[in-house]
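[job 4471] stage=fold_predict status=RUNNING
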Amino acid sequence: MRDCRLKANRHWAPGFPCSYLGQELDMRILIVDDERIARSELKFLLKEVQSDIQILEADSVESALGLLNNVSIDGAFLDMQLPDGTGLDIGNHIVDKMDGCIPIVFSTAYEHYAVDAFSVSAIDYVMKPFRKVDVLRAFSRMTKKQPLTPLAIGPNEKLTVSSHDKVIVLNIPDICYITPVERHSVVFTKRGEFTTHQSLDILEERLKNYGFMRVQRSYIVNLNMINEIVPWFNNTVGIKLTGFNNQVIPVSRQKVSQLKSIFEF
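[job 4471] inference complete, writing C-alpha cells
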C-alpha cells in the first residue's frame, strides 16, 4: 500500500462516521456525497469488492476538509455537486496536500461533469446510478501499486468546457474572457459562451502562462483580445475586447498599473 497518505494524525475527528475505530486496515477510502442513499450504495459495492476496506464518509465540502485535516486516506470517491461547493474543491485540497499522490474518482449523475475531473488529474469517474462493474474498475485503478496515471488532459493549449450536455474543447487563444455566474464560470469566445465548474481561482492559475490576466475579482481576460482601453470611474480604466465592443470590463485599481506597464500607456 502506498505510503503517501495525507500527513495528519490518525486520531478520529468527532462527528465523522467511521466503519472501524482503532483497527489498522489495508486501505482507507473517503466517500463524499450529500445523499445518504448514494453513500450507502457506493459503500456496499466497495465492501463487496474488498470486505475489510475502511470507509470514511462526509456529506459536504466543509465536513470533508475537516475530516482530511484529521485523518489519512488512500483514495477518495467525490460527488461533483455538493451543498456548499463541488467535489473539485475537495480534489484540489487533496492535490495541494499530496501533489496528486492520492487517487481520486469522481461520481456524478451527469456525464458532462466528468470533463472537470481532468483539472485535478482524477484517475476515473463513475456515473450514477452506480454499477458494480464501474465501481470495480475505479477501485482497481485506485489500488494499483504502480505510479498513478492520471486521465489524459490533452494538448496544453486546450480547455474543456460544456454546452448543452456536450463536452467542448476550446483553443485557449480563442477565449476572450471568463466571469462567474452562480456556482459556474462562463467562458466567452467569438463562437459562443460555455460553462465550466472550475472556479476563477483555478482558471486563473491554469491560464496564467497564456497571456491572461485577472483584471478584477470577477473577470479573467485574454490580453491579446484587448482592442481599446477607456477611462473609467475613480481614476481607473475599462477595457473592450475584440468581438465584445459594446461591453466595458472595469479594471481594479490594483491592476491598472500592471496593465499600464504591459501596454505602455
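[job 4471] summary: Confidence is low (pLDDT under 50) at residues 1-25, 145-155.
[job 4471] exit 0
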